[in-house]
Specification:
With 246 residues, this protein is mainly alpha-helical. The longest helix is centred in the N-terminal third of the chain and has 20 residues, at 33-52. Helix content is 35%, strand content 6%. The strands form two sheets. The protein has a two-stranded parallel sheet with strand order 1-2. A hairpin with a 5-residue loop joins strand 3 and strand 4 (113-114). The chain has helices at 2-6, 33-52, 66-78, 80-93, 132-137, 142-148, 166-169, 174-181, 202-210, and strands at 11-15, 58-62, 106-107, 113-114. The protein has one domain (2-238). It is built from nine helices and four strands; from the N terminus they run αβαβααββααααα. Helix 3 runs antiparallel to helix 4. The structure holds iron/sulfur cluster.
Length: 246
């Protein structure tokens, strides 16, 4: 964020790791759930700091719809009325529900159509053989049918009626579930919310087990790191806010 400010960058995106392509080679290096939360805390704090100081920057987080729910939960503690508006917008948007395979497509350099740029391992057909409009609406492919109707397919702790945030998160990135569990309808392995935060009660856990949808959440086993400093921990002399005129 110091760099963004110093170089007067107007827009920055922070990406969660998706384990396809080269990302697959570093999947074991993904952040732990706690590290992801710490990173999000820093992004939220520093973005708010820009806003407070009138610096007009667009800061985005990308490839994990859980961020919207995390932002909502943080905001709820500070400004419940605004948080409710945020949740309304997230629910209207649906998170991952209307993204890959619905509102997002990828056509590669050979003309093959994929659900998004991370789904290179699955093609729905080629625009050299059929018009895109036909390929995109052909639900004979089970993946296309499922992506168009995630609500009926998503399992385990992500399933509607199990996760209380399903309508606003939509089960996030289906490609990560496919790459980790070889099942595109398995739970999002990079969800960093606790069972308690998503309302995954012991009763619901029992129900999920009875359905045979008890997928073990992967644990990233990097050695724990010291938490990076929060903006409030940085002494004023070196704070990015320190040299700015009020
Ligand atoms: S459990 Fe699934 S649907 Fe719920 S917040 Fe996490 S990723 Fe989203």
């Amino acid at each position: 964020f110091d760099f963004i400010e110093r170089e007067q960058i107007d827009r920055a995106c922070f990406y969660h790791l998706v384990y396809s392509g080269r990302g697959g080679q570093i999947a074991g290096d993904d952040l732990s759930r706690e590290e992801t939360r710490q990173a999000l805390d820093i992004i939220l704090e520093r973005t708010e700091d820009f806003h407070r100081r009138g610096l007009n920057k667009e800061i985005l987080t990308v490839d994990n719809h859980v961020d919207g729910i995390y932002l909502y939960m943080k905001l709820l503690a500070k400004d419940p009325a605004r948080a409710e508006k945020v949740l309304r917008l997230l629910t209207w948007n649906g998170g991952g529900m209307y993204s890959s395979g619905v509102g997002i497509a990828d056509i590669d350099f050979l003309g093959n159509v994929h659900a998004d740029q991370f789904w290179m391992h699955h093609s729905f057909g080629s625009v050299r053989e059929r018009p895109f409009s036909e390929i995109w609406t052909d639900t004979a492919d089970p993946l296309m049918a499922g992506l168009k109707n995630r609500r009926a397919k998503i399992k385990g702790r992500c399933a509607p009626g199990i996760c209380k945030w399903f309508d606003a998160c939509g089960g996030a990135m289906r490609v990560r579930a496919d790459l980790v569990y070889s099942d595109p309808w398995a739970p999002e392995p990079a969800c960093y919310l606790t069972d308690e935060e998503i309302g995954f009660t012991p009763e619901k856990q029992k129900l999920v087990r009875a359905r045979g949808e008890d997928f073990p959440m992967p644990e990233f086993s990097r050695p724990p790191r010291t938490a990076p400093p929060r903006i409030s921990d940085i002494p004023p002399s070196i704070s990015c806010t320190g040299g700015t005129e009020a």
